[in-house]
Specification:
By secondary structure, the chain is of the alpha/beta class. The protein has seven helices and 19 strands. It folds into two domains: 5-114 and 241-307, FAD/NAD(P)-binding domain; 117-237, FAD/NAD(P)-binding domain, CATH 3.50.50.60. The structure holds NADP nicotinamide-adenine-dinucleotide phosphate.
């Protein structure tokens, strides 16, 4: 059996890396599992304009790389692998990763959330063949082509605006007649001549599975019931997120949407297990708030370990 770590951090994006910075500076020698890739959702973002300290903005991947280096600088041990199972039923806690089993006196969960899917068979079939959840990753494939974006929030506006750098036309399909996005993002989208809005509409089918490529979408107007085919070469879906909590089901309390339930900001239903970032916070979802929760979780883990006499 391996010796128990003082703290294991599961997740290597804003929340997890910040927890790494704080716990390593506190000499807790954290072990951090990044999952398949570190950096999380910011790796799919281009310019981050609202992270304090970067008045000119910073690229999402660069911000993540800087956080990673900062965590390593103070001794955070980073393992680039996935945690597949946990057992929080007894102490020390058990964490099963790709390379084997690890023990921990405390755990910080910072596994974040992932893009939500529409749930259509044709969406699944054309994933990677014109259906995408990341304009920054795939936008360049659509130079001078027409694309559709689904959603009415900040993510959808961000995707649409990014796509205008590549595509000739961007059609935003939204299920209501009003956007959820912030005023500034709405204004930018409305002012962009390449962006067009298709209101009160939902995508019923992505075309054309038989051709193994996106040729358009079939949309239904939710007010009139009318169905229309809209031509496009790519479909970008930006309709929110789902928490990455599958491995914690039955181990800690989750809410009805699958997010981790917390009290005192970061404490889960199991003493010694903390949650930080989008995995519990579906309200703010910002890099800065995820980092702030990572900091809180680290401070609470430190307090918990010291109360238990584990130093
Ligand atoms: P969001 O704010 O939850 O918006 C999701 C959008 O998708 C909504 O317009 C929603 O419609 C629509 N939607 C949800 N499920 C759908 C479905 N099954 N079919 C069709 N449409 C569906 O999510 P988000 O845009 O990802 O943003 C999440 C958070 O991150 C927000 O707090 C946002 O401010 C923040 N964010 C900020 C920035 C930035 O500041 N640059 C960038 C990205 C995200 P309804 O409006 O009808 O509910």
């Amino acid at each position: 059996m391996p010796e128990a770590e003082k703290v294991i951090i599961i997740g290597g994006a804003s929340a997890g890396l910040t927890a790494g910075i704080y716990t390593s500076r506190a000499k807790l020698e954290p072990l951090l599992f990044t999952g398949e890739m570190y950096g999380g959702q910011l790796m799919m973002t281009s310019e981050v304009e609202n992270f304090p300290g970067f008045p000119e903005g910073i690229q999402g991947p660069e911000l993540m790389e800087r956080m990673l280096r900062q965590a390593e600088r103070f001794g955070t041990r980073i393992l680039y692998e996935k945690v597949e199972k946990v057992d929080f039923s007894s102490k020390p806690f058990r964490v099963f990763a790709t390379s084997g089993e690890y023990l921990a006196h405390s755990v910080i969960i910072a596994t974040g959330a992932r893009p939500r899917m529409l749930g259509l068979e044709s969406e699944k079939a054309l994933l990677g063949h014109g259906v995408s959840y990341c304009a920054v990753c795939d936008g360049a494939f659509y130079r001078d082509m027409e694309v559709c974006v689904v959603g009415g929030g900040d993510s959808a506006m961000e995707e649409a605006l990014h796509l205008t750098h590549h595509a000739s036309r961007v059609k935003v399909i939204h299920r209501r007649d009003q956007l959820r996005a912030s005023k500034i993002m709405q204004e930018r989208a409305f002012e962009n001549p390449k962006i067009e809005f298709i209101w009160d509409s939902v995508v019923e089918e992505v075309l054309d599975v038989s051709q193994k490529k996106v040729t358009g979408v079939l949309v239904r107007n939710v007010k009139t019931g009318e169905k229309t085919e809209i031509k496009c070469d790519g479909l970008f879906i930006a309709i929110g997120h789902e928490p990455n909590t599958e491995i914690f089901k039955g181990q800690i309390e989750l809410d009805e949407m699958g997010y981790i339930k917390v009290r005192d900001h970061v404490k889960t239903s199991v003493e010694g297990v903390f949650a930080a970032g989008d995995v519990h916070d579906h309200k703010y979802r910002q890099a800065i708030t995820a980092s702030a929760f990572g900091c809180m979780a680290a401070l609470e883990a430190e307090r918990y370990l010291s109360e238990k006499g584990i130093t």
